[in-house]
Design brief:
single chain, 343 residues, alpha/beta, 16 helices, 7% strand
Length: 343
Amino acid sequence: MDFDKIYGHDNIKAILKNSVSSDRISHAYIFEGPKGVGRFSTALAFAKAILCEEQSGESACGKCKSCVMADAKTHPDIRIVSNELYDDSASSQNILVGTIREMKKEIYIKPFYSDRKIYIIPKADTINEIAQNSLLKVFEEPPEYCTVILIAENTSVFLPTILSRAVNIRFNVLPAGTVEKYLSDSYPSISPELLRVKAAMSEGSIGTAQELMNDGGADSSRDGIINQLCRLSSSSSKTLYDIIDVLKSYSNNIDFMMKIITMWFRDCLIIKQGSDSVVNLDKKDKLKQFCCNISDDAPFHLLDIAVRYTKYFKQRAKFNLALTCMMFECWEVLYDRDNWYKI
């Protein structure tokens, strides 16, 4: 992995490149940010640049033995820390205190090949307080040749003593255009309309976008949800319960369902405001038909409902009950209370 292959985060890459070129490498970093935005890839590019034998200026040469080993993920001085690294039988998703203790022993052994050693710890925010206290000695008395990079979604779980001894670098979500550019480069055979949808659904995470692209059922699920929303806008009889029953089948992927619903209502608002810059480009005809069947102010209320219930679901509301309430509220926006007899 190289800096120039990382999408976005130009300011962060500039900071890290400057650290390499000036040979001012800290003993500890925390790469904080949402999942899938490039924290791990950036850590790998940073490690590669630090250990490059022919490095001139800011970036790795990509040709020396160190770079070749880094690209092949066989460099003995770039260690990706997991429980399985030191214990093949470990099954916990959290970084265990035993893993940190084994890492500490290894840290004090000098590098095998390069002048420095880099330890990258994904899911570092799963390290409990006992393990953090064990790690603290390394942060307080670090070997001059060692750098530790903690990758975390939330630094609030770290002890103040850990935070105060590391350089904290915040990774924000990527603009939809950046994710779309990545998808366009990586999946040139996919239509631009569909790539735009996937980029919007990713919420600024290239990792999430990749998962959506590789999920064979995602497109059919999206179609199914949108079809039910279209039925909602054209209902003239007792179809609401049928719609709810179909949407209940998405109970295992509530976040996905709510993304589709929220994007749909947001696009309706855009169309009602006289613009065509919608996300669901491949569904524009259905969108326009949907909008013809609703009032001008309905999208404001529908979008508010979707955002509100997304929050409820994240707070672990009972799915069937919350879904039913949400769809009843949407029905009321579209048909008002005088039409309850149609349900």
